[in-house]
User: What shape does this take?
Amino acid sequence: MSAPTHPIRIDCLQYCNWSETIFRQMRQGGLDAVHVTIAYHENFRETVHNIEKWNRWFEQFPSLIFQGFSGQDVRRARETGRTAIFFGFQNPSPIEDDIGLVEIVHRLGARFMQLSYNNQSLLATGCYEADDAGITRMGRQVIKEMNRVGLVVDMSHSAERSTLEAMEISERPIAITHANPAFWHSALRNKSDVVLRALAESGGMLGFSAYPHHLKDNSNCTLESYCEMIARTAELMGTDHIGIGTDLCQDQPDHVVEWMRTGRWTREIDYGEGTRDNPGFPTMPAWFNDNRDFGNIESGLKSVGFDASDVAAIMGGNWLDFYDQSFGPQPSNSAHDQRRAAE
Assistant: This one.
């Protein structure tokens, strides 16, 4: 098997209607790793059921995909011509109100967990709430436990105060796996300069979304615009703390986006920003319809002036470094231990 000539490619967020077709497209697009959402509003047992589904796919398509647990699995995927699949939650509902489930879900393979989706959760405030109360009492304890076991704090859908407090509380770098800068497009989900600077200063990672509602010109966003957005963000954050998190929702029926927005918390339709006139999934930009188009992003980054080393970092190298540092138990020389030793 010949080695790939392109840099490591990691997409740090997808929620597709999974199939052999998509897994083969991952391989055609040279994806070495993909962080997949396995829970939106599911409780613990329902999440386990979703893991069972993935176990069947791993059994059915072992030449295409396997479950990833560490950064080393990304390297193994590249060496064997497969894609490593990493599990994540877009809501803390899988741990219910039980902090003990943090360690359990990590053992089952979860590596990312958002502290809130769009609404207030038991842990933090979502970006659609009018008032942001910050990290809750339970949230502070859960962050500590997530740090201990190696479950990454993800604040992609969280409100600003909650996001900043999560960075302050967490002793390990956090991630915003799929969002864009608000200075480029002012969606509720996109992040302020204050958040982006703090994220970089704390060692965290931002994954740029290709989901149209997060982009300037929405579905008509050009590749040049997308990559120019990345270039301008690199001026703010540096190139070491940015990567890709496309938020690809390929082949999902429109009723699934309703589930994403409403879950079980309302009997009404929750129209998210920019969706009232088009309540289903938006059309993806022409340059990114599926995983086979991942190389377009690489070409676009070169065209806006990134050199080869920066392109390699953004396409996957930065995420790989983050995976190496984040998915295992908390190092003994953590900031917490250093403070304890100084007391």
Observations:
- The first strand starts at residue 10 and ends at 14.
- The radius of gyration is 19 Å.
